[in-house]
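Backbone geometry tokens:
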Amino acid sequence: MTKSSDALAVSGKEEPEDEGNAAQSFTFDEVMEALRAETDRLMPDNALLEGAKAGDYAKVIEALANGARKTAVDNDGNTAVHLAVISGNRDIVQFMLGREFAADLANKSGFTPLSYAVAGKYAEIAGDLAAAGANVNHAISGLKETLLMIAAYRDIPELVETLLKSGARVDEKDSNGVTAFMRAAGQGNLDCLRSLMDAGADPYLKSDTGNTAFAFAKRTGGAQAVECLNAYLTEYMERVARVGSAKPVSTMKTISLKKTEYIPHG
């Protein structure tokens, strides 16, 4: 029997293992975190998209350092900018736009990041995207529904203002000939109506069914919208008389209005 065996027999205790050869143990969470980190390193595009969606600024930066492409998309065709906008992460949106990520790519459904800014009522993000070159007149093919129309219908005056200041065409029509002005009138969205009026919306345009904004207001917009439009008809004619007609004279109606009377047009 060796001396070490003798010592063990006497003490009844095992000798400690050499610390240098001891196996290191990890918790389950530590193992999973290590796997995620390695996956992010090997698949930086996915890491970029995940970071943008989660609002994880550090993950976005790390993904780019690992070689993530600015044009990376998910299965729905969403870019990192799309996902950051959907989540309302303005800081990340600004970070990406500052590094020349595309501001205006459409996903498989035809929606741009600006489309989602309008859907989420993110007026400041919409302004950032417009300043970076996003098309404020983007319309979904087939419907021809512009972002200004959506904002006016949903009563988001801040977005209406942002889009108009960024160059949105006030009198654009959808596939049914309806304008943003008509939509706001039909919903009785007064603040949006006023913004569109300030932008010179044409109250004499007609939809494919022959209705003007006044007709929409009278049908479903409520008394205040009707009164607002009635006053605007007078103001519009005075403005045209002052600065000159913006359209052929043959398309204008010569009318005499009092601000208190409701005169249907269309």
Q: What stands out?
A: The domain at 34-135 is CATH 1.25.40.20 (Serine Threonine Protein Phosphatase 5, Tetratricopeptide repeat). Strands lie at 139-140, 145-146.
